[in-house]
Design goal:
This protein starts with a strand and ends in a 14-residue tail after the last helix. It is built from 4 helices and 5 strands. Strand 2 (56-63) and strand 3 (69-79) form a beta hairpin. Helix 1 (13-27) crosses helix 2 (37-53). By secondary structure, the protein is of the alpha+beta class. The model has no long low-confidence stretch (mean pLDDT 94).
């Protein structure tokens, strides 16, 4: 299958929202998420703000022959205090990497991740991180990501 990775922009907002809600429903094992109007509104506002100001890059994996979208991905750019491993203080958080279930294992996710990494490097982003489902960890390790120790998360509530 001949796939191209295409950068998304605000003209793709409705498609981005459709794919974002699909991803959230699968990740959180809850089809009801697709009908959550507050979540939809907040995600739409996020895309409108961050695609416009360049602090988010989104992409689609598209079948060249048919134009069918078969995957999506994104990277959020954030600033942190500069440090020896990130002297410019820009980091990227890879997220929303998703391929249609019937097409997983064919390299589409890898193409999207590599595209987004290149976009981040063009911006001078030195530090890129992500959260991964267990099933995708081998892919990320092959690309060069390493497991991080010493991180903690404060639960919601």
């Amino acid at each position: 299958m001949d796939i191209e990775i295409r950068k998304a922009d605000l003209s793709d907002l409705d498609r981005l929202m459709e794919w974002r809600m699909r991803v959230l429903a699968e990740v959180f094992f809850d089809d009801g998420i697709k009908d959550n109007e507050v979540l939809k509104k907040n995600n739409r506002s996020y895309y409108e703000e961050h695609l416009a100001d360049g602090t988010h890059t989104a992409c689609f994996a598209v079948v060249k022959r048919t134009g069918e979208i078969v995957g999506c991905g994104g990277i959020c750019y954030q600033k942190e205090m500069p440090s020896p491993d990130n002297v410019f203080g820009t980091n990227g958080y890879l997220m929303n990497i998703y391929t249609l279930p019937q097409l997983r294992g064919k390299g589409i996710g890898r193409q999207m991740v590599e595209f987004l990494i290149q976009e981040a490097k063009k911006r001078g982003t030195e530090k890129i991180f992500l959260e991964s489902a267990e099933v995708a960890k081998d892919l990320y390790h092959e690309i060069g990501f390493m497991d991080m120790e010493g991180y903690m998360k404060l639960p919601k509530g």
